[in-house]
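Customer escalation, tier 2.

The customer says the design service returned an amino acid string that "doesn't look like it belongs to this structure." They asked us to rerun it and document both sides in this ticket. The original structure tokens are below, unchanged.
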């Protein structure tokens, strides 16, 4: 199984060989503001950066956080940690072009999650963009 991934503009492209070990959702302020809340964990052995290493910019963490976060310097897409030297590291699940075969198995930093972060079960769902008249209050 090969899972392809990329940033919005396509400058950064990668593949993951095999299913990620796990998927989670992070509610920390850094991940939320960078748009990296849903993450998959991959190993060095299964991750291969195909193009765009020169486009990757990194945000250095400020304590109490310890892990860097990266994004495409051309389009701004949050990537996770594709340049990590760790054995296992997170990649933004929103960058995956293929189904990773795993689903969210944990949530972290829930104390930092804003009250508006979860839609109620009664919220209407649309397969595409709704007509604003369908969602705006009367």
């Amino acid at each position: 199984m090969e899972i392809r991934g990329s940033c919005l503009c396509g400058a950064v492209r990668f593949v993951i060989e095999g299913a990620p070990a796990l998927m989670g959702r992070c509610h920390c302020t850094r991940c939320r503001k960078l748009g990296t809340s849903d993450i998959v964990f991959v190993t060095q052995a299964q991750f291969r950066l195909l193009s765009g290493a020169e486009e990757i910019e990194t945000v250095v963490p400020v304590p109490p956080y310890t892990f860097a976060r990266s994004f495409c310097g051309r389009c701004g897409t949050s990537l996770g940690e594709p340049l990590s030297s760790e054995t296992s590291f997170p990649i933004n699940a929103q960058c995956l072009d293929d189904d990773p075969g795993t689903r969210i198995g944990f949530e972290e930093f829930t104390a930092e999650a804003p009250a508006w972060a979860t839609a109620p079960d009664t919220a209407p769902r649309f397969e595409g963009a709704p007509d604003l008249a369908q969602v705006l209050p009367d």
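Tier 2 assessment: The sequence is consistent with the input. The two ends are 48 Å apart (CA to CA). The chain has one domain: 2-116. Sent an explanation to the customer and offered a walkthrough call.
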